[in-house]
């Protein structure tokens, strides 16, 4: 009985830590993909003098990797001002939803800052 109680206590402590570890790992994969999209945006800007919309990016053959697309959906907002700009937003879905959205813009600003380490 004591052994079962000890195992239950260890599981109660270890399981939440493991779940947070998994969430952070999935977040890191999404952040890496956001950086890849930002690099693609810079290449598109050099070639076309404008940033790509999500539709343009996908038309060029880009698709989110499966390990990211199962946990996040994304949008790309392209600015319409005199200076080209973009904002990439990854919104978590499913079990990742408690983590909150991630954004990266053309100036390199990453929000929320506490999740970009």
TrEMBL record:
InterPro entries: PilE-like, Pilin-like. It comes from the Bacteria. Residues 94-117 are annotated as: Disordered. Signal peptide: none annotated. Gene3D superfamilies: Glycoprotein, Type 4 Pilin. SUPFAM superfamilies: Pili subunits. This is Prepilin-type cleavage/methylation domain-containing protein.
């Amino acid at each position: 009985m004591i052994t079962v109680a000890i195992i239950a206590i260890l599981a109660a402590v270890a399981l939440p830590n493991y779940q947070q570890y998994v969430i952070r790992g999935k977040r890191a994969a999404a952040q890496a993909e956001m950086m890849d999209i930002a690099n693609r945006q810079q290449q598109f800007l050099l070639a076309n003098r404008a940033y790509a919309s999500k539709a343009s990016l996908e038309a060029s053959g880009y698709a989110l990797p499966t390990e990211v697309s199962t946990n996040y959906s994304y949008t790309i907002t392209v600015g319409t001002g005199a200076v080209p700009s973009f904002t990439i937003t990854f919104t978590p879905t499913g079990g990742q939803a408690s983590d909150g959205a991630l954004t990266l813009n053309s100036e390199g600003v990453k929000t929320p800052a506490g999740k970009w380490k």
